[in-house]
Amino acid sequence: MSVPVSHRSAEEIGRTEQGPRPLPELGEQRAPADLSTVDTTIANGLRVIAVRRASVPMVEVRLRIPFADPAATSVGSQHAAGGEVLANTILTGTATRDRIAIDTELALVGSELDAVVDPERLSISGSVLATGLDTVLDVIRDVLTGATYPADEVDRERDRLVERIALARSQPNVIAREALQKHLYGDHPFAKEMPEAEEVARVSREDVVALHAKAVLPRGSVLVLVGDIDPDSVIGTVESVLSGWTGEGTAVTISPLPQVAAGDVVLIHRPGAVQSQIRLAARAVQRTDPKYPALQIANLVYGGFFSSRLVENIREDKGYTYSARSHPEFTPHGASLMIDADTASDVTAAALLETRYELARLGLVPPTADEVDVARRYAIGSLLTATSSQGGLASFLVSLAGLGLDLDWFVAHPERLAKVTVEEVAAAALEFFAPTAFTGVLVGDADKLAPQLKALGGVTLP
Amino acid sequence: MALPELHRFTLPNGLRVVLAPDTSAPVVGVSVHYDVGFRSEPEGRTGFAHLFEHLMFQGSESLEKLAHFRHVQSSGGTFNGSTHPDYTDYYEVLPSAALERALFLEADRMRAPKITQENLNNQIDVVKEEIRLNVLNRPYGGFPWILLPPVLFKTFPNAHNGYGDFTDLENATVEDCAAFFDTYYAPGNAVLTVAGDFTVENATELVEKHFGDVPARTVPERPSFAEDAPKGEIRAEQTDPHAPFPAVAIGYRVPDPVTELDAYLAYLVLAGVLTDGDGSRLQQRLVHRDAIVTDINAGCGLFGPLEARDPDSFTITAIHAPDVPVDRVIAALDEELQLLAEEPPTVEELAKVTARWASTMHREHDRLTNRTLAFGSAELLFGRAELIHELPDRIAAVTVDEVSAAAKALRPDSRAVLIVNPATAGGTE
Fold first, then answer.
1. Locate the Peptidase M16 C-terminal domain: which residues (chain A) (predicted)?
2. What residues in A contact B365, CB-CB < 8 Å?
3. Cβ separation of B97 and A26 shorter than 8 Å?
4. Which residues contact A178 (CB under 8 A, 6 or more apart)?
5. Residue A31 — pLDDT band, cuts 50, 70, 90?
């Protein structure tokens, strides 16, 4: 490299006359202000959580409608396909507004709304300038009670959806996720995160209208509003605006998942891949379980943040990966522990070996008091930073609400983390992180990977 | 909204400091923006600025390898760094009790980073994995930010791949790192930003305490990267082994955002008129009426607006069905631009864009990470962190005629067209 001016050597740069300096202690931490909040269920069965946080003149809106396939199996079920078409067309027409009118009204109050569906729920999310909240609530009312699903919109979105599904399925991350869910849960509707193109092609406008009438229900659903609002008066507004949204029964929650069964990692061939996706999973416990805070800390020490054993080993020591992490994933009835790492083909088997080694080590050489302390402080502090914005708080609250939890759980959680002992973390490490408890998938070029993975063992080759 | 007051001062060593107190939540953000990005890396060392960013996390005189991460995270904080065309930023966002610690960490690596062969080798491997993840192993990797610049620009600083090619990365030496640090990472070539829950008095004292004795060094003169706009329409084609559908990126040049900000903002508003929301011109025409593209986007800057100096770009990208010729997409786009050039958009069209920008900026401002970084980059590039507060009004002041003029300036005879073909479906021409 051309050197523009004379410069010091790296060694000279790395030292000063004074020498290393001590790390400053932490200062006094101010507690967050108490939140003014209302959490109530209105007459039609909809739970409404309203929180005042007036840092900017905006309101974050999160509506979650449980929207699971009531069938026991996704085989032969059109639910996922119908749900996708519904989500992509619910904001395209009502008796009084067409697609462009909806977009225009929202835009003029600085708002965007988005509808997405997954195996558990239909979510309508967005944000709005505080002065335009009434407009957004009225648009939401209009589509919930009177979405017309215009035939031309359904036709076009159906075609577009087929292309979008093909696009999604060209992403290695999506390929790995679909393979993992299928491997873990078989034909349970939870595993079906995306419909097949031919299923989408069969969805008619009438199907979508019928699905809306049957499944878009207030009872069991939750609406979270966080922002520059008065929680008491906003509840009254929501109650009057959405009173006309009614329906028989309760929105359908996903049925319990089969227990994750330990077993071999299944290798999935992706010809020409230059990098592999390692995706492992095991059983975990829900947030309400007494063991959860210890599990949360054990997970952080394993791979839940940058200063974890897994990242320090396979990234910062060995350079096998850019991204490696572990994290719990929750459903209303249970939880799983997931491990993700993407690694170059020639180091994939070695990365899997280290990933398993660190799993075993977590139980056998359990987290030290220092490791537990770092993880604990991260867990408490990151909860504070992640929920310090309106959007962050709204998203966190709506996901808690989906698990049947409320603001009290959130407010009390730092205390729970503070009480966890090193022994409890060691017990959680031994119980949940045993390598033999895991299974998973590995997506990559089998021609390159097979010899090493065969030698490593515990991998089913294609 | 009551805008938080901004305070600024410059230390004797040249470090510019911006303080943006706001006590609405007990958290604090600290960032350092260095005035060097991948446009400054020399030929034969593509990707070096980004590789060096990784090395800045690998330890400094008072901090062993891994200590930086542990100290941030054990304070309950998060961190990251990113490399842009014209600057490189580093940040921590933490509970406010950790303010001094964050300043200490940034000062220590500004004063005396520890650069070793072992850490360099390790981070070359990590960066190569990052490139495999984000570019080589996925569809549309580097589209358009790596693929379009060599078509739109002719000179090495503007045209080359900022992620770097593997050979160049592997050739990087510790000596290169030392030269790069001494040249570009001088305190006088940086902006320190502190935003969030603190008092100005206390923060000023802590900044002086930790950064005050970072020795001043010569600040390099910033070169101009100016080059002429393309003459004619320059086309290039690429094959993407992972892409299921063809894609196209069309790049134009825009006015200098630093010296002609209001003219630049007209393009920002134009982007909204074209592709923001179902009612926008190109969404209506290409997605819904003609139904020839799956998705279409338009915007200023390859990493977003107002984050690079001149020369900057305006880019339109679309993914379309294999049976739709790319020239049909481009022709429809040209027709829509022509319509806007002949007849300005309505006042209502602009009001929609303006209101959505206002709310976008409120939301950005509410996230401490974004707020801290926005103040820092505005101070570095524009010399005015206040710009962040003024943008909603300046965007609202853009007139329909200015947007029309911007549309007229996106001329077919001065643009770059990058066509991405899937490997399996064959070309579209």
1. 203-377
2. 56
3. yes
4. A169, A193, A194
5. confident
